[in-house]
């Protein structure tokens, strides 16, 4: 069976994945498939750190702006859409490049999904009430007790994913992450080159702090206000990092400066979890630096050229 090349770029938030993906796509005649659980939503630009409209005009991007903020997009939904996008890129004779930091979505794309047990509406309602009464962090602690690996991957603010992980683990009477190993429909027909970006903790945290501050300077609170007016406060994506803090500003629960600080801390914590998650994948080749560094660009170019010669 002929296997087509597929490039995957992973790393923590603010490590420079998008910039590297765009450069590789331009050099090797590729198209980019985003792997980000928030970038799938339309109307959410500033807080998602999507590639700019100019960058999206330079190189075709897929799995960005595919659903409305009031629609659900599960890992399964993402996997199906991303697989279709990758197949289309390959059929056009282009190089598919997956870039993103949502480990759960990437695992669904590459390794496939497990046969999840039926949904339990009563348990789900109970868990949501618990989050409403005791806070998202308390609910996240319940997930940690049931499935530490899933808790390490899913942010406490993402109540819907936390609820689902607890629901699956309790229904199956085993951790959800253990079920991932059972009966999955793995992606086939591709030779996958996996590259990871590692700028180092100190530099990464500086980049994260700068990006979070810039989001508020560019109008994250105002963008969030428009989303709240259209979709209300309980719109699920507004619980994601950055937007959750902007919502707190709108509700008068914290100042902008406090929101920036909390968003910076939340993104740093998320980056740590991302690093833990991706370091477990022995197939990832790590590049020491950020995506825009000349040394990283050069090494990535060499790796991709060895994996698949330039297609133009």
UniProtKB/TrEMBL annotation:
Enzymatic reactions: adenosine(37) in tRNA + dimethylallyl diphosphate = N(6)-dimethylallyladenosine(37) in tRNA + diphosphate
GO molecular function, one term: ATP binding
CC cofactor: Mg(2+)
Region (Interaction with substrate tRNA): 36-39
Record key words, sorted: ATP-binding, Magnesium, Nucleotide-binding, Transferase, tRNA processing
Binding site for substrate: 13-18
Known function: Catalyzes the transfer of a dimethylallyl group onto the adenine at position 37 in tRNAs that read codons beginning with uridine, leading to the formation of N6-(dimethylallyl)adenosine (i(6)A).
Marked site positions, Interaction with substrate tRNA: 102, 124
Protein family (similarity comment): Belongs to the IPP transferase family.
Organism in which the protein naturally occurs: Granulicella aggregans
Enzyme class per UniProt: transferase
Subunit structure: Monomer.
Full protein name: tRNA dimethylallyltransferase
EC nos: 2.5.1.75
Residues where ATP binds: 11-18
Keyword check for Lyase: no
InterPro entries reported in the protein's UniProt record: Dimethylallyltransferase, IPT, P-loop_NTPase
A single GO BP: tRNA modification
């Amino acid at each position: 069976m002929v296997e087509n090349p597929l490039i995957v770029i992973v790393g923590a938030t603010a490590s420079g994945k998008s910039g590297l993906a765009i450069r590789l796509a331009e050099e090797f005649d590729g198209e980019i498939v985003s792997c980000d659980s928030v970038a799938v939503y339309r109307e959410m630009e500033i807080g998602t750190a999507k590639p700019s409209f100019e960058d999206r005009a330079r190189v075709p991007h897929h799995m960005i702006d595919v659903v409305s903020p009031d629609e659900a997009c599960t890992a399964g939904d993402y996997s199906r859409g991303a697989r279709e996008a990758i197949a289309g890129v390959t059929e056009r004779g282009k190089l598919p490049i997956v870039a993103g930091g949502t480990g759960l979505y990437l695992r669904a794309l590459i390794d496939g999904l497990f046969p999840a047990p039926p949904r339990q509406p009563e348990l789900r309602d109970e868990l949501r009430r618990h989050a409403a009464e005791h806070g998202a962090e308390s609910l996240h602690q319940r997930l940690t007790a049931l499935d530490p690996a899933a808790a390490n991957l899913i942010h406490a603010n993402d109540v819907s994913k936390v609820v689902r992980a607890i629901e699956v683990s309790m229904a199956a009477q085993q951790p959800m992450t253990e079920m991932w190993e059972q009966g999955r429909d793995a992606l086939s027909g591709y030779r996958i080159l996996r590259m990871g970006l590692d700028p180092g903790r100190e530099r990464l945290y500086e980049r994260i702090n700068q990006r979070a501050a810039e989001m508020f300077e560019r109008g994250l609170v105002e963008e969030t206000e428009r989303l709240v007016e259209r979709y209300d406060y309980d719109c699920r994506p507004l619980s994601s990092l950055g937007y959750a803090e902007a919502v707190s500003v709108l509700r008068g629960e914290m100042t902008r400066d406090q929101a920036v600080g909390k968003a910076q801390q939340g993104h740093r914590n998320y980056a740590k979890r991302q690093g833990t998650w991706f370091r477990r994948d022995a197939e990832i080749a790590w590049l020491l630096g950020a995506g825009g560094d000349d040394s990283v660009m050069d090494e990535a170019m060499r790796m991709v050229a060895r994996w698949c010669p330039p297609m133009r």
